[in-house]
Amino acid sequence: MSRIAYVNGRYVRHSEAAVSIDDRAFLFADGIYEVIEIFGGKLIDEAGHLERLNRSARELLLKLPVGERALKLILRELVARNGVAYGHVYLQVTRGVARRDHFFPKAGTPTTLVAFAHRSDRAAAEAKAQAGIKVISLPDIRWKRPDIKSTSLLPNVLAKQQAKDFGAYEAWLVDEEGFVTEGSSSNAWIVDADGALVTHPADSGILRGITRARLFEIAAAHQIRIVERRFTVVEAKAAREAFITGATTLVMPVVAIDGEKIGGGAPGPVALGLRAAFHGFAPASE
Ligand code: PMP
């Protein structure tokens, strides 16, 4: 089955899907995006992702080209046409096509909507979770609005590649005061000596992860306390456990930071327990 993507009202072969070289996202990374998990053919936490998309659009004065009903239909159509049982849908909205100029395109210029679906290897993801991942710490050199899910991801991409070059999977970004904000494509968590989950407050310094938000409910049901406060790399290295969250990684245990083992170098029971519980809590689309 050939892969099908959605581009501005049309379903096209993924390999032939294209936007203009005058598209604002190509020229300025002037766009926003979302990544939603597909689990058992259903979209997970769709409402939260679409709410965040709307917020990103509002913050950047972007108008979505289709309403929520249409967008939901497009996402379902992509899942169906691509026959994805486990994977993700990616959707991106850009400020549209206009002759290159920093000023916004003239009013009424249609915004671009692109979406596609990816299949993922569940067994490989589970094996990864059972082994745990390594992270490195790097300075957070992003702009001051990472709470907006913008496609301007150059610092994130550079950090992620540096992590890979170091033999790690993720980079934890550290602000100027020495506190971990989040990962290059995930939220960062530790389990402190009292067994409480600690994560950076959801202010403008991090992306308010949809997986992160869902964890509050799961933790409460397991009588686990969550404390939203900043933590340093030194504190993280001494933590009982560490993990990351995101729609692509779910809850993923961290077993080393900057080459130093966390919690004996094996995934901890809290992280693995939260991972196992996740789909029992996160709502799936009808
Ligand atoms: N922070 C960043 C920088 C991310 O790119 C992501 C992944 N989208 C997350 C956090 C996690 O967000 P979510 O749980 O909504 O996938």
Please give a structural write-up.
40% of the residues are buried. The chain has 286 residues and is of the alpha+beta class. 30% of the residues lie in helices and 28% in strands. It starts with a strand and ends in a 5-residue tail after the last helix. The protein has helices at 24-28, 46-59, 68-82, 122-131, 154-165, 210-221, 233-237, 269-281, and strands spanning 4-7, 10-13, 31-39, 42-43, 86-94, 112-119, 133-139, 170-174, 180-183, 187-191, 197-199, 226-228, 241-246, 250-257, 260-261. α6 (210-221) crosses α8 (269-281). The chain is built from eight helices and 15 strands. The protein is globular, with a radius of gyration of 19 Å. Residues 35, 182, 185-187, 207, 209-212, 245-247 line the site of 4'-deoxy-4'-aminopyridoxal-5'-phosphate.
What is this entry, summarized?
With about 290 residues, the protein is of the alpha+beta class. The chain has eight helices and 15 strands.
Q: Spell the H/E element sequence.
A: EEHEEHHEEHEHEEEEHEHEEEH
| Number of β-strand runs | 15
CATH class wording of the largest domain: Alpha Beta
How much strand content do the residues show? 25-35%
CATH topology call of the largest domain? D-amino Acid Aminotransferase, Chain A, domain 2
What is the approximate shape? globular
* Low confidence ranges: none
Query: Going by CATH, what is the homologous superfamily of the largest domain?
Result: D-amino Acid Aminotransferase, subunit A, domain 2
Q: What is the count of DSSP helices, taking H or I runs of 4+ residues?
A: 8
CATH architecture of the largest domain: Alpha-Beta Barrel
State mean pLDDT (0 to 100 scale).
98
List cofactors, ions and other ligands: 4'-deoxy-4'-aminopyridoxal-5'-phosphate
